[in-house]
Amino acid sequence: MALIATGATSAASPAAASMAASELMAQGRNSAAVLETILQGASLPPAHGGLQLLAAEILRCCDRALTVMRAGEAAESSAAAAAAGVKRKPATTTAPANRKRRANGGSSGGGASSPAAATRVERSRTSEDGYLWRKYGQKEIKNSKRPRLYFRCSYKDDDGCTATRHVQQSEDDPSLYVITYFGDHTCSRKLAAGVDEDDGTFQKFVINFGSASASSSPPLLYESSSYSSGIRRETTSTIVEAVKLLLAGGSRRGGIRGEGRAGRIASGVGGGEFAGGRLFLCVSGTGAFARLLELG
DNA sequence: GAAATTTGACCCGG
DNA sequence: CCGGGTCAAATTTC
Predict the structure, then answer these.
(1) pLDDT tens-digit profile, chain A (296 residues)
(2) Beta-carbon contacts of residue A64 (< 8 Å; ≥ 6 apart)
(3) In chain A, where are the structural domains located?
(4) Are A285 and A267 in contact (CB under 8 A)?
(5) Does A99 contact strand B, using a CB cutoff of 7 Å?
(6) Å between CA of A219 and C1' of C2
(7) pTM (2 decimals)?
(8) Could you say which nucleotides of strand B lie within 7 A of any protein CB atom?
(9) Distance (Å) from CA A97 to C1' B14?
(10) H-helix or E-strand spanning residue A81
(11) Third-level CATH fold of A118-182
């Protein structure tokens, strides 16, 4: 479930969807404000000093997201339409057999992997969605400053999952990703189960540390060289060290688990107890991001 | 050495 | 021919 999700190719009810997203974001912002207040009222050990900055960053992200959402339905829907408009017509759903032939005679592989029309378009501050994707292409798009990244489900080979997606940074707000999904996951494999599940009992906040405006990045977290298209790449050890640093000292609980193989996927989950409320920090995905969960 | 990413080449529809 | 989507060899990373 994406934090920010707007629009649909069918244009069924963009206004309602946008409204719901706005309310969710406003709710998230309020919770972030509460978290910040809690953090400010607590006497923190030096190692936790970055948490206040983190909370402030959450608030700023929420404010910016709200601004974008409320910018106007017209702009919003036109952006979604533009994102969907580049798709080929749905009539090409039949598999273009062996669309590519190399010099050494075409491969018979592939088959039936042609994407249908976009199933949905989402705008999110992180390109992470709980699934494991494998990038298979990148393309400069005409009349667009940002390249479009092409991903397919990493279990395509194992499970024959045909889900694909395109990711492109928003023209309006580079910290937002416009993600267009094609096909459904037939693999049913998700990452970080139990953390990605949103049962509605807690608020979720997604912080993208890869934001271009890194001037106010929490000092506890790391810097990294830019990655093509702005999606940053970090090794597992780097991310895990950042989590350890963030959770160092004090009443740490849970620690780190779920480290994936670096390069394939970096997945770590850290948990801490703080000021009466439990704070979880999860870091996962090839685009470095963290997810904060405040329980109670 | 294995697995993922990069990136130029290739395919196809308009 | 152009532009978007995909492939796959080369490269990168661990």
Answers:
(1) 333 333 333 333 333 333 445 455 555 655 556 565 555 555 555 555 556 566 665 655 555 555 444 443 333 333 333 333 333 233 233 333 333 333 332 333 333 344 556 678 888 777 777 788 899 999 999 888 889 999 998 888 777 788 899 999 888 887 788 899 988 888 766 654 333 333 322 222 333 333 222 223 232 222 222 222 222 333 333 344 444 444 443 222 222 222 222 222 222 333 222 223 223 333 333 333 333 322 22
(2) A173, A175
(3) 17-40+51-71, 118-182
(4) yes
(5) yes
(6) 47
(7) 0.42
(8) 3-14
(9) 19
(10) helix A73-85
(11) N-terminal domain of TfIIb (2.20.25)
